[in-house]
């Protein structure tokens, strides 16, 4: 007979992962604030902001704001910006840069329905397990206006890989949990929450199965 102590507890596992995640990014916050964004990701952001301006969007929510590098660019482009992050250390750095940022989980956003015109989330949602990803995408679409736009980027792989990194990175803290999904899986998950209007993938290096997956999703409109 299997005892109850042998049965995995998903909630307990998530709490450990989240604690490790906060410890890692709290320690990394100051350094990450000085780490440049890759040109290919900056180009994606600029294209997204042009789209938002063309559609006269005004308010933008970032999920996983980090130290506020993307947030500063979004605000400088003339949008009303709000950022969220699970790491208090990252939020502190973002606030010090003058941004409206707050500690919050992607699966429980502290905002009302239809609160934002658009959302931006880079290199964040691949830290969530399947249940958390579904919850986060549901929350993002909930806080967006009907027909709102959501840009998301995640690290994925040709084959599903799940688990923490083999060792701590650069001495910042515990290993981080990654859930690297296939292109098909990510595209399908996003399509459950709206229309995928843009989609591309980019290998981390030539020939690598590790790749960045980027999409722009439009939520269901009021008349759809």
From TrEMBL:
GO MF term list: methyltransferase activity
InterPro entries: Methyltransf_11, Methyltransf_Superfamily, SAM-dependent_MTases_sf
Gene Ontology biological process terms in this record: methylation
Keywords: Methyltransferase, Transferase
Disulfide bond in keyword set: no
Segments forming domain Methyltransferase type: 61-151
Keyword DNA-binding: no
EC number: 2.1.-.-
Signal sequence region: none
Name of the featured protein: Class I SAM-dependent methyltransferase
């Amino acid at each position: 007979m299997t005892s109850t102590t042998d049965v995995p507890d998903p909630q307990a596992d998530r709490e450990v992962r989240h604690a490790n995640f906060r410890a890692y990014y709290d320690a990394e916050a100051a350094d990450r604030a000085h780490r440049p964004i890759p040109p290919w990701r900056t180009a994606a952001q600029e294209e997204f902001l042009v789209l938002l301006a063309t559609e006269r969007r005004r308010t933008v929510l970032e999920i996983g704001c980090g130290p506020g590098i993307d947030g500063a660019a979004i605000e400088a482009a003339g949008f009303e910006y709000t950022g969220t992050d699970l790491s208090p250390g990252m939020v502190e750095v973002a606030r010090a840069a003058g941004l409206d940022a707050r500690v919050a989980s992607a699966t429980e956003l502290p905002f009302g329905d239809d609160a934002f015109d658009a959302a931006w989330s880079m290199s964040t949602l691949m830290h969530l397990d399947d249940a958390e990803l579904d919850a986060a995408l549901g929350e993002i679409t909930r806080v967006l206006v009907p027909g709102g736009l959501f840009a998301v980027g995640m690290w994925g792989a040709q084959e599903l890989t799940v688990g923490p990194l083999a060792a701590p990175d650069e001495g910042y803290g515990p290993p981080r949990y990654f859930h690297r999904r296939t292109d098909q899986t990510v595209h399908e998950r996003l399509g459950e929450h709206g229309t995928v209007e843009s989609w591309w993938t980019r290998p981390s290096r030539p020939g690598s199965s590790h790749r960045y997956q980027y999409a722009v999703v439009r939520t269901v409109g009021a008349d759809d």
